[in-house]
Design a protein that fits this description.
The protein has eleven helices and eight strands. By secondary structure, it is α/β, with parallel strands linked by helices. Helix 9 links the parallel strand 7 and strand 8. Helix 4 packs across helix 5. The chain is globular, with a radius of gyration of 17 Å.
Length: about 270
């Protein structure tokens, strides 16, 4: 596959230095938002697949990679940063796609800036708020990170986003995600955990959202159970959901060809 030319630069957006990658070319634009502990580099191969058909913009979300951080990176705050990036790049409207935590931000962006988006794509993400048990788990994770053990969190968390059967196949990608996670500022990651803990219940919003939407889910997703996946399908409508039998929590990598093609068809059809 020929290498796609991608520009990388920084811009101050919503008062924050933001790391941006941008293919610059295409009639339609898609904004890609990575998940927890990832960076914009997680999208490299996916960008190559999409950029033949559209302009692809990705950013390091607040608290991640080379982007700055607020004290608490709420999903609303991150969505404001996304809107500011669009202003700086003079993007009037775009499709927005988010993986996991990035999906929470994408949902919040669509909620707060409905006129800016042509479609919502959520990849292994959900509209649910944290359960009390999940909040307790996040508090424990914060405690571990405060003990200067972010790398321990990274080493244990990243392999789990892939289906067990895919972990050897994607061994190099897992290693790459772990290595790029070394640039994270622990305080920025804690600010994101706090932000995820504060997010709202968006089930009714997703159910009533008239904007075109596309949701990817995986059978072996350790974070979204089959029961939760069925509820998402009910809320969003079966026609909006792609369910992969062989994927875990990372469909855009585990099923990259199918996932990218579905997104291209989705965007071309709008």
């Amino acid at each position: 596959m020929p290498k796609i030319r991608v520009m990388e630069y920084f811009s101050t957006c919503n008062g924050l230095p933001v790391h941006i990658s941008d293919t610059k070319k295409g009639d339609k634009t898609i904004i890609l938002l990575h998940g927890y502990l990832e960076t914009l580099y997680v999208w490299e191969e996916f960008t190559a697949l999409l950029s033949k058909e559209m302009r692809v913009v990705a950013i390091d979300l607040p608290g991640h990679g080379l982007t700055g951080s607020s004290e608490v990176n709420t999903m609303k705050y991150c969505a404001d940063v996304v809107a500011s990036v669009m202003d700086k790049l003079e993007i009037k409207s775009a499709f927005i796609a988010g993986h996991s935590m990035g999906g929470y931000v994408a949902l919040e962006a669509v909620k707060n800036y409905p006129e800016r988006f042509e479609g919502l794509i959520m990849i292994n993400s959900s509209p649910f708020p944290d359960s009390p048990e999940k909040r307790e788990e996040r508090e424990r994770e914060i405690s571990v990170i405060k003990e200067n053990k972010l790398q321990m969190v990274v080493r244990t968390s990243i392999p789990k986003i892939f289906a067990p059967a895919n972990r050897i196949k994607f061994e190099e990608k897992i290693l790459e995600i772990k290595e790029t996670a070394e640039v994270h500022d622990p305080e920025g990651i804690i600010a994101c955990i706090r932000g995820m803990m504060q997010r709202e219940d968006n089930r009714e919003f997703l159910k009533n959202l008239s904007l075109p939407k596309l949701i990817f889910l995986g059978k072996h997703d350790v974070y979204i159970s089959e029961e939760k996946a069925q509820e998402i399908e009910t809320l969003a409508g079966k026609e909006s959901v792609m369910f992969y039998e062989n994927a875990g929590h990372c469909a855009f990598i585990e099923e990259a060809s199918s996932c990218s093609q579905k997104i291209i068809e989705f965007i071309k059809g709008k």
